[in-house]
Design brief:
- The chain is α+β, with helices and mostly antiparallel strands and 663 residues long.
- The protein contains 22 helices and 22 strands.
- A hairpin with a 2-residue loop joins strand 15 and strand 16.
- It is globular and about 95 Å long.
């Protein structure tokens, strides 16, 4: 078998199981529970089988020891303790590193797991807890309706069977084998229920065996023989089903329920019965498929070219001026708008993929600095462009670590302040217009504004005059200045003067904005605002001399006309009065060295960055248009105030203004 053929699937499945184990470990530490242990065991067992089949022995050995330790806990022979939990958390960190090595072309042998394996073996070899084994039964407990369906089926010559299927320990794709079993069963009768539910079986959320409640006119021997022919099926048991009607089911067994009518028709009309089986099978199939990201990117690139051609077609239609052509172009525009929404949706991913890494990190950091922190996550289902998802993780890590280290106090300090010894850290995401907002809020001590002012003066970040005129919120924002830190002691977490300035730069490079609110003694809230997508945006096209420029609408507050007489001078800068606020002016012709005529009245585009405003002076406003952002390439990277380029409908190239650089 060429394992490289399955490498992509292995990596995807491994990351999902690792995340599942991380989530369940946190639940196990907080509240315990046999169900949680079982979920961790299932994921560890699947990881072991997959890595062993792919030939990644170090990964397989680590998960084997973890599985063995969990098996003792779930069987009641040993009790879980903090040492085991810590070992499992360490194992998952090592697992992530090994999977990352495999993804980069290695064999997952880049991590020394000998100490972790020894810790698991020490737990396994310790004293066991004596338990009394009880007999287990997998008999389905059904409701009255399902029981009546079975009774009607029996009256037409059907028999009810309970089938137990055990897959081989070496099975690679459990869900695929289970599907093949169900495919064989659909040829012989009707599936009434499964345990676990079909959704769990499809997602491989079961150990190696599953049960099926089945109706058929065939004998048990025929059914058993048909299933046994499926590859990697180790054992099949087919027994007559004994009803327990009227009782409440302890486990959900309503994966697929057949209605009385199709069952009756099964003996009189084989074709209609076949159609019913196909419908049931179709319902059981997964509703999603995995698509290679490169294909989505190619689709996006093709659609971007289509958007450019659409703009050219609109311009030509305006020049021709034929009503029928204009009507057709308008229909194309409506259709492409809907298609654009659909294509952009394909690029959207839930931010959960980023948030999932934080619970374990918060636990680890809090434990390292002897603090108690409870992380509360909300809005993880909020979707964001894949490009932003890939880049936003590291900035959020910095903000969360900063909140734990600087914001939340030690337990004894919190108790003295009348707070619970456990600090609260909230991580939330939500949509607002065409932007996504991410908030990180703690109930800690807040930012010491006086200390920030003192440090800023000491480092020359602000002048004495500025220190007296700046608001508390403006002073607090100085923590984002390069090299700024209020930490008295340098630690592994903070105090080295790096971090928050990098956070600010990264977020702004994504077209985002970061701000904060703080109250002394009550806590601090960081808010990150990001655009939904970076590929196709709405922009205002402006004219400067003979050149056209695009300013993203997300950064524009308003457009206005300004007379030469309205220009004022303050601190040797040209400003104008905008609703009682003096706003500095930036002339694009001067910034880019473009010759253009001087007018007595000219348009001004007011752009904002957080609470700050700047007026951008241009020659003319062309209008609003959806544009496709194209990178400038390595040769032109780093040009001030330019973030990319776009192709207009007439084929000309327009540069996209980065309004963040105007401040």
């Amino acid at each position: 078998m060429d394992v490289n053929e399955y490498l992509g699937l292995f990596l995807d499945e491994s990351q999902e199981h690792i995340q599942s184990i991380n989530t369940q470990l946190l639940k196990l530490e907080q509240s315990g529970g046999a169900d949680v242990v079982q979920e961790i065991f299932r994921s560890a067992h699947t990881l072991k089988g997959m890595s062993s089949t792919m030939g990644y022995e170090r990964v397989a050995n680590l998960t084997h020891e973890m599985e063995s330790a969990l098996d003792l806990v779930r069987g009641g022979k040993k009790e879980s303790n903090q040492l085991l939990l810590d070992t499992m958390f360490i194992a998952m960190e090592q697992m992530e590193d090994m999977i990352a090595d495999i993804e980069s072309g290695g064999q997952g042998a880049n991590v020394d797991v000998s100490e972790t394996v020894a810790a698991f073996q020490s737990f396994i070899g310790g004293k066991e807890v004596a338990v009394e084994k009880t007999s287990e039964t997998s008999t389905f407990e059904i409701d009255l309706y399902t029981n009546s369906v079975i009774e009607q089926a029996k009256q037409t010559g059907f028999e009810a069977y309970q089938i137990t299927v055990k897959l081989s320990d070496a099975v690679v794709l459990k869900a695929a084998r289970a599907y093949m079993v169900f495919d064989r069963l659909q040829e012989l009768g009707e599936v009434v229920s499964t345990h676990p539910e079909t959704e769990e079986i499809e997602q491989e959320q079961f150990d190696l065996s599953f049960d099926v409640l089945f109706l058929s006119q065939e004998t048990a021997e025929v059914i058993e023989h048909a299933i046994a022919q499926v590859s990697e099926v180790e054992r099949v048991e087919v027994n007559a089903f004994t009803e327990t009607a009227g009782s409440e089911p302890e486990v959900a067994v309503t994966a697929e329920t057949i209605a009385p009518e199709p069952v009756v028709q099964a003996t009189s009309d084989k074709e209609e019965a076949k159609d019913t089986k196909e419908q049931v099978a179709a319902q059981a199939q997964a509703k999603t498929i995995r698509v290679n990201l490169e294909r989505i990117d190619r689709l996006m690139n093709l659609f971007e070219e289509f958007i450019i051609d659409r703009g050219r077609l609109e311009r030509l239609a305006d020049e021709v001026g034929q009503p029928e052509l204009n009507e057709t172009v308008e229909k194309i525009k409506r259709g492409t708008n809907e298609l654009q929404s659909l294509v952009l949706t394909l690029r959207m991913m839930p931010i959960e993929q980023v948030f999932n890494r934080f619970p374990r990190m918060v636990r680890s950091v809090a434990k390292e600095i002897h603090k108690k922190v409870q992380l509360d996550i909300s809005g993880a289902e909020t979707e964001l462009d894949r490009t932003v998802i890939d880049e936003i993780g590291d900035p959020l890590v910095h903000l969360i670590r900063n909140a734990i280290d600087h914001g939340i106090e030690r337990p004894e300090v919190r108790l003295q302040a009348g707070k619970p010894e456990q600090g609260m850290l909230a991580l939330r995401a939500y949509h607002g217009g065409n932007r996504v907002f991410i908030e990180i809020e703690d109930d800690g001590a807040g930012i010491n504004v006086d200390k920030v002012r003192s440090k800023a003066l000491e480092r020359g970040v602000i002048t004495d005059e500025e220190a007296t005129t700046m608001s508390e919120n403006e002073l607090a924002m100085l923590i984002f200045a390069p090299g700024f830190s209020t930490a008295d002691v340098v630690t592994d977490l903070s105090g080295r003067g790096v971090g928050l300035d990098v956070v600010k730069n990264k977020i702004e490079s994504l077209g985002g904005v970061v701000s904060l609110e703080t109250v002394a003694g009550q806590g601090t809230k960081f808010q990150v605002s990001l655009p939904l997508t970076l590929s196709i945006i709405s922009a205002m096209l402006v004219q400067v001399g003979e050149e056209s420029y695009a300013i993203p609408l997300t950064s524009i507050l308003e457009t206005t006309l300004l007379d030469e007489a309205d220009i004022l001078t303050a601190h040797r800068e040209r400003v104008f009065d905008f609703r009682g606020q003096l706003v500095p002016l930036v002339y694009m012709k001067e910034m880019f060295g473009i010759e253009s005529e001087t007018k007595s009245q000219f348009p001004v585009v007011v752009v904002r960055k957080g609470n700050k405003l700047v007026g951008v002076v241009v020659n003319d406003l062309i209008g609003q248009q959806e544009i496709v952002m194209k990178p400038l390439g390595t040769y032109l990277e780093g040009i001030p105030a330019i973030s990319g380029a776009t192709i207009l409908g007439d084929g000309r190239v327009a540069l996209i203004v980065d309004s963040n650089d105007l401040f």
